[in-house]
Amino acid sequence: YGRPNFAVDFQAIINEDWQMTEKRDIGVFVCGPKPLVKELQCLCIKINDHRSPNTVQFYLNKESF
């Protein structure tokens, strides 16, 4: 029960795609409360800031209620 560990999930995606030679855009779709959206938004920014722009990039698409 509880919220998933999104950092672990995102890292698994990165590890899966580490052999890719071309840029990969990954859409993160979230519909939920603002704290959840904020957590995922911060995680996408943090990961993208530490990765080369020619590798995996996460893009957040949100809908809040």
Automatic annotation (TrEMBL):
Under Pfam families, the record lists:
NAD_binding_6 (PF08030)
GO MF, one term, reads: oxidoreductase activity
Q: Which InterPro entries match?
A: Fe_red_NAD-bd_6, FNR_nucleotide-bd
Q: Does the keyword Oxidoreductase apply?
A: yes
Q: Which residues form the Ferric reductase NAD binding domain?
A: 1-44
Top-rank taxon: Eukaryota
Keyword Oxidoreductase carried by entry: yes
Check the record and name the Gene3D superfamilies matching this protein.
Nucleotide-binding domain of ferredoxin-NADP reductase (FNR) module
User: Any idea which UniProt keywords this protein has?
Assistant: Oxidoreductase
- Protein name as it appears in the record: Ferric reductase NAD binding domain-containing protein
Q: Which lineage is the organism of this entry classified under, starting from the top rank?
A: Eukaryota, Metazoa, Spiralia, Gnathifera, Rotifera
